[in-house]
Amino acid sequence: MNQQPFELTDELKQAVSSFFQRIPFNNVIGIEIDQLSPELVLMSFAMKDELIGNFIQGILHGGVISSVLDVAGGAMALIGAFERHQHLSGSERMARLSKLGTIDLRVDFLRPGRGKRFTASAVLLRSGNKVAVVRSELHNDDGELIAVGTGTYLCG
């Protein structure tokens, strides 16, 4: 089977973006999609009072950190699945991808979540027929690495 090189078209980028913007919790956090490519996903959000976990120090809640790493990882897994399923029709591809879900997520908290803006990045480590493994990182606006995550996603 001779497959064309995978291109993440504007239409596919819009589909991924729309998928994640329709999740109400992502909107509560204020996640913005900055970059979608087969090699890298970048998302960012601004600090706000509703996201504080330690009110004495004013630092980001660990659940927000985990959630954002998971969202970035899920987007990367979805892009990897688009590539694997490019031979399917649009409706068949969407039927398979509608099952996207997190199987496992390990988060290592490295520093307190201090900052005004945070950026999550995700790269695909492995994409198989049904499961993808993604590595995610969260940095603050000073470039400090706040947390890393490794997620396993059902995507096919």
Automatic annotation (TrEMBL):
* Residue intervals of the Thioesterase domain: 57-146
Q: A single Gene Ontology molecular function, please?
A: fatty acyl-CoA hydrolase activity
Keywords per UniProt: Hydrolase
Transmembrane ranges, per UniProt, are: none
User: What chemistry does it catalyse, as a reaction equation?
Assistant: a long-chain fatty acyl-CoA + H2O = a long-chain fatty acid + CoA + H(+); a medium-chain fatty acyl-CoA + H2O = a medium-chain fatty acid + CoA + H(+); a fatty acyl-CoA + H2O = a fatty acid + CoA + H(+)
Indicate whether NAD appears among the record's keywords.
Answer: no
Recorded hits in InterPro entries, A to Z, give: HotDog_dom_sf, PAAI_dom, Thioestr_dom
Give the enzyme's EC designation: 3.1.2.20
* Similarity remark: Belongs to the YigI thioesterase family.
Q: What is this protein called?
A: Medium/long-chain acyl-CoA thioesterase YigI
This chain's source organism reads Pseudomonas marincola
Gene of this entry: yigI
